[in-house]
C-alpha cells in the first residue's frame, strides 16, 4: 500500500512539473509570435506594442492576468537572482535617467552558460526582438528578475 501512495505522489508531482513546463513553453511561444512587431508606447496590438503589453499577452495566453504597466508587473511573482534566472522569468531594467526606476521589461527565452541569458522584449528602436541580458547595455541597466510560474 505504501508503494502505491509513493507512486501516486510521484505521478502527481511530475504532472505538475509537466504542466508548469508546458505553460512556460506557451508563454515563450506566444511572446515569440510577436517578433518583428513594431514598438509603440502604450500599444497593445501587432500593429505596435510596448514591452509591458508583450508580457501581458504572453502570460494571458496561459490564463495568468498580469498588470498592464511595467512598474506593476515588476512587483508580481517571486524575486529571482540574476544567476538563477530561468526560461519564463521576467527581467526588469532601468533604461531611463533614474537608476532604480523600472522602465523596461522582457521574458527570458533561453539560458545557456554563464553569460548567455536571452530575453524577448519590445525595443523602442527595433520592435519585438530577443537580446542577450549580458550585453553591455542591458547588464548595466538590469534591476531584477521575477518568477511568475
UniProtKB/TrEMBL annotation:
Query: What Pfam family is a match, any one?
Result: NLPC_P60
Domain of life here?
A: Bacteria
Kindly state which keywords UniProt assigns to this record, in alphabetical order.
Hydrolase, Protease, Signal, Thiol protease
Q: Where is the NlpC/P60 domain?
A: 21-149
Instruction: Spell out where the chain crosses the membrane.
Output: none
One Gene Ontology term from the biological process aspect of the record: proteolysis
N-terminal signal peptide: none
Q: Which GO terms describe its molecular function?
A: cysteine-type peptidase activity
Which PANTHER family does the entry link to?
ENDOPEPTIDASE NLPC-RELATED, MUREIN DD-ENDOPEPTIDASE MEPS/MUREIN LD-CARBOXYPEPTIDASE
Q: From the Swiss-Prot or TrEMBL record, give the protein name.
A: NlpC/P60 domain-containing protein
Amino acid at each position: 500500500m505504501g508503494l502505491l501512495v509513493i507512486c501516486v505522489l510521484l505521478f502527481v508531482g511530475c504532472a505538475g512539473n509537466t504542466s508548469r513546463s508546458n505553460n512556460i513553453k506557451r508563454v515563450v511561444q506566444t511572446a515569440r509570435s510577436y517578433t518583428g512587431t513594431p514598438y509603440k508606447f502604450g500599444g497593445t496590438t501587432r500593429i505596435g506594442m510596448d514591452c509591458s503589453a508583450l508580457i501581458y499577452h504572453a502570460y494571458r495566453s496561459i490564463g495568468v492576468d498580469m498588470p498592464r504597466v511595467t512598474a506593476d508587473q515588476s512587483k508580481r511573482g517571486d524575486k529571482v537572482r540574476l544567476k538563477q534566472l530561468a526560461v519564463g522569468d521576467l527581467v526588469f531594467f532601468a533604461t531611463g535617467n533614474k537608476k532604480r526606476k523600472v522602465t523596461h521589461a522582457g521574458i527570458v527565452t533561453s539560458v545557456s552558460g554563464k553569460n548567455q541569458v536571452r530575453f524577448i522584449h519590445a525595443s523602442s528602436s527595433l520592435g519585438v526582438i530577443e537580446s542577450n541580458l549580458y550585453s553591455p547595455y542591458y547588464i548595466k541597466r538590469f534591476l531584477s528578475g521575477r518568477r511568475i510560474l
